[in-house]
Specification:
mainly alpha; 11% strand; 3-stranded antiparallel sheet; 98 residues; 3 strands
Length: 98
């Protein structure tokens, strides 16, 4: 069992995302249509994960190892629990030993 606590994903409406400066409402809609931004519909509202919005950001400087490590830690913290098979598969993808 992992010692990392499971973090609930944070969904934002497109209006909230636009108000927080991720992009204009119309740009967010275009990203969803283009498949660059995953979205879900809850009732009549379209919502997106904050982590997916943050993933759209483009670095203005080359990423350091610490940047990559911090991003991986955020991803792990927001991910659901993985099966042993999924852990082995990800280990293979990232070049680690299984």
């Amino acid at each position: 069992m992992s010692s990392t606590p499971h973090v609930q994903p944070i969904y934002l409406t497109l209006q909230q995302a636009a108000a927080e400066g991720y992009a204009a409402y119309s740009t967010l809609r275009k990203y969803i249509t283009d498949g660059r931004l995953p979205a879900v519909k809850v009732g009549s509202r379209v919502k997106v994960l904050r982590t997916d919005l943050e993933a759209l950001a483009v670095a203005v400087r080359p990423a350091t190892f610490e940047d990559v490590e911090a991003a991986a830690e955020r991803l792990v913290a927001s991910a659901p629990p993985l099966s042993d098979a999924q852990v082995r598969r990800l280990s293979t993808i990232f070049g680690g030993a299984s």
